[in-house]
Batch of 2 targets.
Target 1
Amino acid sequence: MTRVLSFKFRTVARVLLFLALPLLFLVGCEKENKSDLKELEFMLSGKPSELKVLRKQIDRFEAENPGIKVHLLHVPGSGKEYEQKFLTMAAAGTPADLAMVFTMIYYTYIQRGTLLDLTSMIEEDPDFRKEDYFETNWEGLEYHGAYYGVPLMWITYVLYYNKQIFDKEGVKYPYDGMRWDEFVDVAKRLVHRDSDGRILQYAFVWPDFYMKESLWYLLLHQNGGRALLRDGDEYVLGKEPYVRANTEALRYFIDLSEKHHISPASYELEQFQGMDLFLEGKAAMKLSGSWEPFVFRERKFFEWGVTSLPFSTNPYTFHSSTMLVVPKGAKHPKEAFKLAKYLSCGEHQNILAETGRAIPSLISATQTDFYKKSFEVDRDIMIQVAKSGGRSGYKGKSAMYRSEIYDIEKRNLELVFLHQISLEEAIQRIQQRVENVLSKER
Amino acid sequence: MVETSWIRRFLCWFLQVGHTTSRQELLRKGFKTMLLYLVLVVTAFSMLLPFLWTLSTSLKIPEAVFIYPPQWIPDPVVWENYPAAWNAVPFGRFFLNSFIVAISTTLGNVFTSSLAAYAFARLTFPGRDKIFLVYLATLMVPGQVTMIPVFVLLKNLGWIDTYQALILPGMFTAYGTFLLRQFFLTIPRELEEAARIDGCGVFQIYWRIVLPLSGPALATLATFVFLGSWNEFLWPLLVVNSMNMKTLPLGLAGFQNLYGTDWSLLMAASNMVIMPVLLLYIVNQRFFVKGIIMGALKG
Amino acid sequence: MKEASQKSSRWWVPWFFLLPSFAGFCTFMLLPIGASLCMAFCNWDILSPPRFIGFQNFVTLLHDRDFWSYLGNTLYFMLGIPIQMAVSLFLAILVDRKIRGIVFFRTIFFLPVVSSLIAVAMVWRWIYHPEFGVLNELLRWVGVSHPPRWLGSLDWGKPSIIIMEVWRVAGYDMLLYLAALQAIPQELYEAAEIDGANAWEKFWHVTWPMLSFVNFFVLVTRMIGGFQIFGQIFVMTQGGPAGSTTSLVYYIYRNAFEWFRMGYASAIAWVLFLLMLGVTLLQWKLGQKRQKETYG
């Protein structure tokens, strides 16, 4: 009897001790901060090298503003993780104080009610002068008369080309104002195959997200068609009077890989993800955004040039901004706004210009030597090109269902690439299903 | 007395047989063993191929990663990728965090699961099988839908960005209980009966008989739980905000971003991250020797 | 048996064993699962308060063509399970011996399990590359002129993932089988040998029955895992091409985190759950019968 009791005692003691273990962590990890220090959480994504540069800037900000401390909340990964984390934090009521978002998700978040209206803060601040910034940026930030973000930087889509490949083939470089037909002819001369007919060098590649984010809308506009009307309130891919122009543009798009074999098919491009064909010298041209110089710089033996995109009837490109927003429920919105202002007005804009990560929003930053001299290539074309372009995000209803619409478009177009259905049928299917999504009462 | 040339002595050592085995016997065993090794090597090679690729990629310069035809032996060999990867992000801190989380989760899970598994396997109480089915059922609910409720729960407890948030959810999954219950069921009841006759209390039977005999099962579970915790990405992503609480998978993901992937650094980092789990696995192999079980049964 | 005399004099003993696990289990498992059940009857976009809509999500589900198509994909993926189990068992038997250097081989077989899914998926994506990948290189070398496009093909997308999975998890179950093989008492083999059994008969009459518990565990966990396949698709194909490799859980993920339809996602998860429950109960009943046969 006594033996059993002592065992019981011992085991009870052991179990209690074990259960106490997690409590030790609790005690160990409590870092109660009861000072007057205002701690900001700044959520962003980007390369580690970018972060280091940003951190230095933020340290300067902290030095100029004692009483504010900034924690960088870096979200790794390629984009999906960022949105997921943002969502989860917003759902739990603990969003970051400041976050970096770009045009396409900006409107979605506004419509879902997650961003703070910053209009009064911007208008009351004498340092914020609209003329100092590119018009496209402000227009993009505005939503139904209010501003929910502060401009930081922006990009346009341009055509990059590998000078070495062009020189080797003896082909003239692509130029501003080139038309689709000529583009295809030029491209055909740049494709290399091996003895089995396998393609070793492509002429033209897209970024790996172009199907996921309907970058091919570009082509629709360039041919005089469009997919969205009234700034995204209505979907007209398969509707008159646009359907003819749209079908032509999509036919061109599909022929690039299926008929002319100058670029890999869309779904295969996803497989290449991580392997940038252009960077590896396996593609002569690439349609991409103005962040590429940042990446190109890391490759030493690479000579590249940049020009505007070829078009058929209408020179058109997209531009997209990255802005700083303050989520609703942020603990220190005023301080967050201060930080946002610091990054968008000051020295940081020059640093952005120098790294080539994007085009700074502050006009003056693009007129300095930092911008003009930091790359061997003239980057002004990126700014000019944007003047003939449109916003890559839409403020209407479609912003709310952006991701679903992309998915429908992507899946049905892939079926066309895979020869399962015809292009016309795909367009009609897409039209139907997107209308369905837009009309649902959510 | 048998003549022992050095070949013979080597073969006897290698094949683990006594010195007195006949020549015939030795040749036969040798042949069988050679065949076995052949099969092992071929299978191992097919498993190893992708790793040889990651190893080779981790030592390349970025330009050489995708050249065609594929280059198996890097030229030049960039050993600096490893320290470069280590320094690109605070790997030391990430390793520490991952260790703390993984070890705590493993100890907690193995301990609580083994207790519960014993209850389900050998003790009777009302509703035993029904409760066990509930345990099983929870394995069937996809994590994606429970993530947000757990997150909200942790937020209400104020445990976001703490070790508790990383450790506790992983500690109570039903996998361990299920696994150990199955193993406990295979332990012969006679042993437990004998112990009971000797006057052992229930806990003593558990502690002195069942647990030691489950060496391989416990080691297996420990390896699995450690592994799961070590490689967990989605949950830490949601729950960790600050840099100094990140775990290794989050650190690895840092090499992959909107502009493409730093392949050689990513591979170098991945190889470093694999090491501790591999070591744990090798150490646990000690439990996978037949002799231990036999000894317990006979004794 | 003697258990009957173990009466309820110490009724709290089992609970003493069960409590630590059960307490955490209720907090971190049952509670969130209950919450997700409530979510299934609501319309919730995560950012605004949920709205109760009754069974509407389930009705939508039944008419959702995508749901049925993705269910089909998921079941297809599960065809790889018997292959996985066979390969793992084969490996376990292979390494269940005391020859020199066996630990080295056991480690190599476990290597795929240990690596992070991201690194493994990237490497396999490279292997499966239609133009530059190692696999097609090999196939072209042996004379196949137009090897499949693997992850970019409607027909070969799912098999590609199955093959990668078999490779990746073989070592995992191998460990379980190994532990089970180690627990089989040597006397049973010796007795069989005395009776004149050969290698195959020894396997079939001694090894296989003694593995029944582990087999049950592996089968059930693999099926449950198979129904929930997600990570591989997330990293390797993002559900493409044309949705041919989208699994149900991937669909759930997209609904919850990309399309702001958490309520619908929960509903799908619960239907999936009921499906898995049904299948597992079936296996359980069959397992109980087997258990009674072997152990009495």
Target 2
Amino acid sequence: MAYQFERLLSGIEKYESVLIRLGLAGLIFIAAVVFGLVGFGVAHELVLLSKSPSGSSPQLSESQAALPASQASNAAAGGQSIPEVEPEMTPWDGAGRVTILLLGLDQRDWDTGRDYSRSDTMLLLTLDPLSQTAGILSVPRDLWVAIPGFKHGKINTAYYLGAAYKLPGGGPGLAVNTVEQFLGVPINYYAQIDFGAFVQFIDEIGGVKIDVPEAITIDLLGSGSATKKTLQPGVQVLPGEWALAYARARYTEGGDFDRAKRQQQVIMGIRDRILSLDMLPIVLNKAATLYQQLASGIHTNMSLDEATKLSILASQIPRENIRQGIIGKDRVLFGRSPDDLSILIPLIDKIHLLRDEIFTSSGALGSLAPGTDQERMIAEAARVSIQNGSAHPGLGQETAQYLQGLGVNVVGVNESAQRTTLTAIIDNSGRPYTLGYLVESLAIKPARISAGVASDGQVDIELILGDDWAASGLVP
Amino acid sequence: MVNPDIVPPRQKPGSARKRSYAWLIWLVIALASFVSMAAIGAAGGYQVAQVNWQSTQSAFAMQSLVEQFALGVEDINLEQYDIARQRFEYVLSQDPGFPGAVDKLAQVIAVLYATATPTQVPPTHTPIPTRDLRPVEELFSHVTSKFAQGDWDGTINAILALRQADPEYRVVEVDGMLFRSLRNRGISKIKDDGNLEGGIYDLALVERIGPLDAEALTYRDLARYYMMGSGFWEVYPEQAVYYFGLVASAAPYLRDGSGWTASARYQAALIQLADQLARAEEWCSAQEQYELAISYGGGGSIQQTAVYAAEKCSPPTETPVPVTETPTLTFTPSQTLAAGLTLTPISSPTLTSTLIATPQHTVTPTPAISPTTTAVLPPAPSSTLSPTQTPSPTGTPVLLPSNTPAATAAPSSTPAESPTPTVEALPGSPTP
């Protein structure tokens, strides 16, 4: 009996054991499901977060609430809010030059409660990964330019018009298009930075070290009546609010041009601060905070991934490889617009020089062949034919011998039936080094250079000697 | 009472040890379950997020396309054709089959270019690239393939990709293809795309590799003059007339990003200058400019204003009616936005004078304008336009006319900006 009781107990124990095991398995299953759901949710959000520009999910623009009357009617017709259209810009391919338009909006427009703002600051940042060079170009806000789709106007109104008229791409889109059409350089991204984010960012990195060249009075934002501060000359570390005020101050002798210099000074100061050895651990520790600020205070079409890559690239570029330029008073004329506003009329050629200095002096879209002009010409091995169009028989052969001695690949010489006064050269295949070498050596005028097509494909460059070459005295 | 036959089960030796390991087995099972479920969940979340993202993007994209299309239609109604063009082009770039977009774009383009000077495209002189189809390496082969196709943009992108992989691979050849591609793309941007600065920039890149040829130089100079004239637009009409006159004489079809052609700009600048002269009561000069504008296709109200200016220049016995100021050249919307900025999109390059007079009496026609003020180019290729053929009525540009608004620019700055440019006519350019 006792034994049976024991068996019964044992059975119950077994049953309990099974129950416990089942319960345990159930708990594990439920917990695993919870884990699965958490994993699902986390992965879902991370994917969306990584895909959204500025790390935020797609959302409607706040500025769409207030529209010009005629445009608002359109929005109302749809009965719903309108999604903001990202500007159509060519994403960075990771190889070539990448250019970003940095925009700062006009605080006065916000202060007065206006729906749309003008861009107060326009800076182009450009990085070239191949040559490890970078550049900063400041564009003054009063520049008188053609705004695509609108009348001529100050360049700072492009942002406003794009937003107010709800153009594809909005304010940033039209601002980018306007700068692109004015400067000709392709812009891949834009970044519009809020004042608050700027201040917090500087504070997080412990301020920015600035060498103030001369005493300057700055006006701190949102500090009540006692907002005026004077910075004395010398190197000092400015907290965020002060750095912002320093970058925004325009009431100095140089006005907006000095302001542009200060803005570039602050940008370089931030760069130096972040890359300094003592700051790097702090920046890494605060990476999460910095990221939050980037996401909330910077409006950009860059994805987090792209921004990270660009930050790494920027950190690798040495300071001496960063060119800085300002479209300053020596590159503009001062004038008045038809509605009597102060404007700056661009001196195109001078602006081209500055642009080319910053954007074209290096990079993947340039000459990469090593060596001297002559070495590159020899390496090119272009097939050159010579026609003597001068009145001097035998000049062709003499010139051919001379050029062969220099390493030119002369493949044929003949007398031209047509008399030529000015020496001409035709590049049939795109052989820039031989072309340049011959143009230089024979002092050929630019108007006598042409790009052609070889009829038989056997000759890359045709050189037609004229009387000027015979008379030049350069013939050996 | 224990039945000896029945032996109670005993715990087997080691069962305690087994029990002691049981928790470990459970733990392993639990952990494995958690990890695998989390992984499965994450994978599922990733997939669903991808789908959600795509569907959200598609919905947003479609919503924005519908919105832009509707705004474009409204822009047409408001005669803001250039803005409408941007919107329809955007819609078509995102969805080429968007219902009605092609028709609307065609409608807008028809209006935009209806009043512009008829464009005559000169014969293409872009050379055919070298047929270098050697399949060496995939990227290089891609470069050569694009180059051979004459896809300059594709070639340049392929070169960038190649150089990312190996900047030194067949570097001399690649430099050569880059040279030619940038050159051709630059000319195409200026000539065909209305992207004048983009073309100038490409040609600046070309110059870093090798010398520019005459055709490229000519296009670059034309684009430069156009941009210079644009800088003076509506501010210093004399300067605008000078630069746009240079461009219009050699390439009247050349246009900027807004769709205005050089000749339309030139004509409008002439009217701006004439209006300015008329306001200063320099009637004879004003009349000269009006006549020149008319010779470029202007009519209607300009004709009337020109007649009025002629009358004032050589006054008849009757007393003329006073001049009435009317809104100018561009469409002005009926609203002023909150920031105090008046939005003034360009409706189309239609031209009217700001000064409209309605003569109520017969005016003796004034002598025709001197033909020396009109730039006429011989149709032969490579002809050179001498500075004396400048369409500017004064021949030499003056930065600050006496009646222009106050400006701090010094007149001496003009020569630095424009050292007496000479424009070579493009082959096949129509005589304006």
